[in-house]
Design goal:
Layout lengths: L4 E4 L6 E5 L10 E4 L11 H8 L4 E10 L6 H18 L3 E6 L2 H11 L5 E3 L6 H9 L3 E4 L5 H4 L7 E3 L8 H13 L3
Parallel strand pairs: 1-2, 2-3, 3-4, 4-5, 5-6, 6-7, 7-8
Helix pairs in contact: 1-2
């Protein structure tokens, strides 16, 4: 497993550091830029487009759908679709936040037929849900609070690790994931 943090809010090397459009991008780091679904009601397409083309931006997001927090799902989906369009036009992967909206997310993937990877960050679901998402073509990123049984069903080429906003080191997350993988049956 390559040690790379797919999603962090901390300024770290060997990571996609998550930032919002308009945030200052410090030199020497790699970023993902997007509008979190909780903030979708303050979405500015021009600001996202300008940030997304920056040479230090390697991924688009975090974006997504969250039924528990944020503006209406209609607003969140509008913003999500804009992120997908930018991801596709720039050839950059999409980092996705999803809470209790996986059915809608899978329907959107089927409808939009993206060519860029869609990575669900901070995935904590059960192996059955992981299987559905993997069959639908998603990649899954595991953070400090992952389900060990789920880690075992994710193919290595579709498995990512992350620290998100946790103070836990990437090495600690990778070690925990590796320990779970070592117990495959």
């Amino acid at each position: 497993m390559k040690l790379f943090d797919t999603h962090t809010h901390h300024l770290r090397h060997d990571a996609w550091v998550n930032r919002a459009p308009g945030d200052i991008l410090e030199p020497g780091y790699t970023y993902s830029v997007g509008v979190h679904p909780w903030d979708a009601d303050s979405f500015d397409l021009r600001a996202l487009e300008e940030a997304a083309v920056h040479e230090a931006v390697a991924a688009i997001g975090e974006t997504g759908l969250d039924t528990l927090r944020g503006p209406s799902l209609e607003v969140q989906e509008h913003v999500f679709r804009a992120h997908v369009n930018i991801s596709e036009s720039l050839g950059k992967p999409l980092v996705i936040h999803c809470v209790k909206a996986f059915d809608r997310l899978m329907a959107l993937k089927k409808e939009l037929k993206p060519t860029q990877p869609w990575i669900i960050h901070g995935f904590r679901g059960k192996p059955q849900q992981a299987g559905q998402l993997l069959r639908a073509g998603f990649n899954l990123s595991l953070g400090p609070n992952f389900n060990p049984e789920t880690a075992r069903v994710i193919p290595s080429d579709r498995l990512h690790i992350e620290t998100d906003d946790s103070p836990v080191t990437l090495k600690a997350v990778a070690s925990a994931v590796q320990k779970a993988l070592d117990h495959r049956q």
